């Protein structure tokens, strides 16, 4: 589904922020992604959702070589990926319901179908009473849940989440993790970046750990930061 082969990445003429990265994600797999602040997690995710090309090496996504992929073919691959951005990226002039509905509208679903489905999902993430609120009227944690709902609504093949539970309390974080688990059970491949060691201990998924520009694959339940740390959170 996704293969990195000796990938390196630098911004402009700066140093390589990722180097010699090689790993594969099998279809239907679930990985946590960890690393201290600034280690390169967001950069790795940006490569995965085609916002960035590697500066060296080979990256294959859905059987296509991303480096040589013609620009015109990129949107087709991109549509198969759901992303929860660290800074949410909701559209300010749209309500929660309209934000979440966007991927379904783009895919051409009918309004009645969309409204029922979106309202149900927003209710599931605890925003039943906020469906008509605009982002500015929502707390950070509520905006984050809208962003998660928008990323999962169209059932992407690959779901990438950058600290998707960073703004909610532990109870809601566990509930949201269950939503990702449900998606994973029906076939979505998931990469979930987090500093939350409690989640990593509780859910049995392997860990991609970024350290000094290298990516290491660790077994489920690993604590890459050691018991005395808070996970390297900034
Ligand atoms: N647009 C950019 N231009 C230049 N350097 C960048 C850019 N974005 C990130 N970097 C650098 O790349 C490195 C990795 O950053 P990245 O955002 O991928 O880390 P991160 O692990 O996601 O951090 P955090 O946990 O704080 O979000 C950092 O040294 C950062 O300064």
TrEMBL record:
Protein purpose: Part of the ABC transporter FtsEX involved in cellular division. Important for assembly or stability of the septal ring.
- Report the main location listed first in the record: membrane
Check the record and name the PANTHER family matching this protein. Answer: CELL DIVISION ATP-BINDING PROTEIN FTSE, IMPORT ATP-BINDING PROTEIN
The answer to whether UniProt assigns keyword ATP-binding to this entry is: yes
Q: Which PROSITE patterns match?
A: ABC_TRANSPORTER_1, ABC_TRANSPORTER_2
- What does the record note on quaternary structure? Homodimer. Forms a membrane-associated complex with FtsX.
CDD domains associated with the record: ABC_MJ0796_LolCDE_FtsE (cd03255)
Species assigned in the record: Elstera cyanobacteriorum
| Name of the protein in question | Cell division ATP-binding protein FtsE
List the GO molecular function terms: ATP binding; ATP hydrolysis activity; transmembrane transporter activity
Q: Which family does it belong to?
A: Belongs to the ABC transporter superfamily.
Pfam families assigned: ABC_tran
